[in-house]
């Protein structure tokens, strides 16, 4: 069973920065596919950023150039560095993970994870990020 816990959210003024962290427990020696998502009340959950097993990254167009995803593979910790924050970045941010072995060695794309992981992935409880203008 994979357990996921996010930390690091909070409130910041527009233009500021925050770093989110996500710690995922997994079977010893196993690798995880991990990604960040966000959701605002009344809206669908959207993919923010993902990182593949080879370190390649994918970002939503709305955060490209401002957000950076990174991962400590040894510890299964995922980070999201968020710079130049905008009020429209205000949302509940979720980290999700799933064992790499479920995908034949290559993690799902951000779009694929958004489709598959609500049912098959492992999610944290979410953490609020609020950006004021």
Spell out the key features of this protein.
133 residues, mainly beta, seven-stranded mixed β-sheet, four-stranded antiparallel β-sheet
Description:
With 133 residues, the chain is mainly beta. The protein is 8% helix and 47% strand. The protein is built from one helix and eleven strands, in the order βββββββββαββ. The protein has one helix at 110-120; strands at residues 3-7, 10-13, 18-25, 32-39, 46-51, 57-59, 67-72, 77-82, 91-99, 122-123, 127-132. The strands form two sheets. Strands 2, 4, 5, 6, 9, 10 and 11 form a seven-stranded mixed beta sheet that branches. The protein has a four-stranded antiparallel beta sheet with strand order 1-3-8-7, with no helix packed on it. It is globular and about 45 Å long. The relative contact order is 0.30. The mean pLDDT is 92.
Number of helices: 1
Report the sheet with the most strands, covering strand number, pairing sense and barrel closure.
7 strands, mixed
Helical content (DSSP H or I, runs of 4+)? under 10%
**Series of H and E elements:** EEEEEEEEEHEE
Strand content: over 45%
E-strand count:
11
Rg, rounded, reads: 14 Å
What is the 3D shape? globular
């Amino acid at each position: 069973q994979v357990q996921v816990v996010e930390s690091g959210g909070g409130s910041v003024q527009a233009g500021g920065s925050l770093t989110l962290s996500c710690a995922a427990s997994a079977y010893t020696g196993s690798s995880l596919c991990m990604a960040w998502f966000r959701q605002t009340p009344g809206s669908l959950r959207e993919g923010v950023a993902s990182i593949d097993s080879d370190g390649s990254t994918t970002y939503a167009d709305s955060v490209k150039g401002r957000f950076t995803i990174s991962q400590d593979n040894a510890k299964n910790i995922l980070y999201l560095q968020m710079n130049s924050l905008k009020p429209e970045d205000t949302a509940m941010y979720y980290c999700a993970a799933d064992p790499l072995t479920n995908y034949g060695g290559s993690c799902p794309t951000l779009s694929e994870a958004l489709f598959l992981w609500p049912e098959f992935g492992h999610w944290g409880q979410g953490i609020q990020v609020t950006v004021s203008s």
